[in-house]
Amino acid sequence: MDASVLTISPGRPLRASVTTFGALVGSGFRRYATYRQATIAGSFTNIVFGFLRCYVLLAVAAGAVGGRPGGYDTAQLATFVWVGQGLLTVVGIWGPPDLSDRIRSGDVASDLLRPVAPVTAYLAADLGRFLHAVLTRMIGPLIVGAIFFTLAVPTRWQTVPLFAVSAVLATIGSFGCRFLINATAYWLHDARGPLVLWTLSSGLLAGLYFPLRMLPEWLAVTLWVATPFPGLLQTPLDVLVERDPPVQQAGLVLLQACWAVALLALCRLVQHRAERKLVVQGG
């Protein structure tokens, strides 16, 4: 059977593919649902950092001319922080280095023997993690933020569904970036260096520490167009706080979708080249 095709039954490939993909998503959900104490501890950490970030940005707003740094009012900034703290885990920018660890140990060989392409299998598991994080890690920071701060409430009917689509695309984009970083282990045999660089740069370039709209306009536009980083956090948060008109909101999500597709295609290409390298080396 072709390892690049997600299928079990030749007679019903589409139905079998959907069933298999759903099973892998469920497996990813159950994996993270097992670690209840880690979930609680992670939520508490996100809440603590939420207070720190929120007070810093509100202090910046208080000292800014007009009280709107980057075009955000105080309610939008508070929403940006608290939803961002929940979205950080939902998107999974700093996910576990499962692939690189399996490459280093040699366990990745068993992944290549399965009838599901590695990119597809890892993406399905990551979407299961996404669903678990939405239910467990997103709600806590949002409730705490709503209790202690005034949050911006969406006023357009399309904002919430567009935010949901943007969050899914952000997760797929984050997965693509993390897969590529982990895949460097095929050539380096140890991806800890690239992973450290990713950890240090991704939060800053994705808009975790402050909205990218606070940067000079030319730099913010360059990051948006030339890199996938703003689509990991900044875009869904800007959509939710209604920072832009509806047409521009949709345009940002469309750009986000383009980056997600491009990253998945690049993941498949890199994985294919890595498999050829393993075969050449006799792996």
From TrEMBL:
Q: Which domain of life is it from?
A: Bacteria
Q: Reply yes or no: does the keyword Transmembrane apply.
A: yes
Q: InterPro entries, from UniProt?
A: ABC-2_transporter-like
Which sequence ranges are marked TM in the entry?
44-65, 77-95, 130-153, 160-181, 193-211, 249-267
What's in the keyword line of the UniProt record? Membrane, Transmembrane, Transmembrane helix
What PANTHER family does the database record attribute to this sequence? Answer: INTEGRAL MEMBRANE PROTEIN, SLR1174 PROTEIN-RELATED
Name of this chain's protein = ABC transporter permease
